[in-house]
Amino acid sequence: MQQMDHWQRVEAAVAGAAVDRLPIALWRHFPGDDQHVDQLVAQTLAWQDRWQFDLVKFMPSGTYGVEDWGAVSAYQDAPNGARSIVEPAVVRTQDWHKIHDLDVRQGSYGRQNDALAAVAKRLGGTVPLLQTVFSPLTTARKLATEGLFADLRRSPDALEQALEVITGVTIRFALDALAAGAHGVFFATQLASFRMLSAAEYERFGRTYDLQVLAALRGKTRLNMLHAHGSDIMFELLAGYPVEMMNWHDRLTEPSLHTAATRFPGLLVGGLSERATMLDGDPESVGGEVRDAIAQTNGRRLMIGPGCVMPPAVSEANIAAAVRAARIAA
Q1: Which of 173, 181, 191, 200 has the fewest CB atoms within 10 Å, counting from its CB?
Q2: Contact predicate 33/39, CB 8 Å
Q3: According to the 3-state scheme, what is the secondary structure of the chain?
Q4: If we measure between CA atoms, which residue out of 94, 72, 98, 96 comes closest to residue 83?
Q5: Which is nearest to 277 in space by CA: 310, 299, 253?
Q6: Could you give the domains of the chain?
Q7: Mean pLDDT per 10-residue run, the chain (330 residues)?
């Protein structure tokens, strides 16, 4: 088969058509550097230049969406490179009423799209570029940390009022990302899990606002990826979202790639355990996971990727093994 470029390969895989080789995309945080536009740009470009992945998931700090509302975050040497909320913005139930509209072109929100714009200019549209956008309920949880769950059940009206504001901000941020050069969003939900909420609770406080964001992007994006974080995810509920790609911890929680291929019509992104294999395994075990992912899906509608963000300590040898295994597959 004639060699494809990144776009041809990804779009063929989304459609379930034959590809010259499996697409692959790996992503990681850049702790410290993700607090500075120029450094985040440089790290993102160096990462892509080094590995030539078929998709670039832009990697702002996971707390960027709450800092303009007063939440304070810090990097505390988390193995996955993520920052933690050390001072929530919502401490008492009445604090939800303080969640006001924001100018997404200023502050933390503005910096993320400034950085993305510089990356997009350098890449020149040669590879799909997705801005990371958190679901409104995920942002609410980061604003209140574990206090969210009591408020969701005890004071739902206060939470819903805040979710309306957060949703509007999220939509404007996502639209600005597209204007800055993103081709879509990596839409991450961290609460669509039966370990955290019931299906009815997620329908009301999660899906309602998720779909408002995705509806606002309809017709304006080329590719969107949904990320379902955590264990015991609500896969059936999420599989109907209007996105082209879906990513979850397939090595840690149901469904398997094999089962998911019968339930989601788009591109499955996964196959690699970001900790057990990419971090703690060896190149042979990494290659084995890629080969197993191919066997589960017959190599169709599959992009090799991690279940979630890879730890910064993952070795170059294991990254190279994943890339090599994907690129020899046809």
Answers
A1: 200
A2: yes
A3: CCCCCHHHHHHHHHHCCCCCCCCECCCECCCCHHHCHHHHHHHHHHHHHHHCCCCEECCCCCCHHHHCCCCEEEECCCCCCCEEEEECCCCCHHHHHHCCCCCCCCHHHHHHHHHHHHHHHHHCCCCCEEEEEECHHHHHHHHHCCHHHHHHHHCHHHHHHHHHHHHHHHHHHHHHHHHHCCCEEEEEECCCECCCCCHHHHHHHHHHHHHHHHHHHCCCCCCCEEEECCCCECHHHHCCCCCCEEEECCCCCCCCHHHHCCCCCCEEEEEECCCCCCCCCCHHHHHHHHHHHHHHHCCCCEEEEECCCECCCCCHHHHHHHHHHHHCCC
A4: 72
A5: 310
A6: 6-327 (3.20.20.210)
A7: 96 97 98 98 98 98 98 97 98 98 98 98 98 99 98 98 98 98 98 98 98 98 98 98 98 98 98 98 98 97 98 98 88
One-letter amino acid of 317: A
Structure tokens at 20: 């010259």
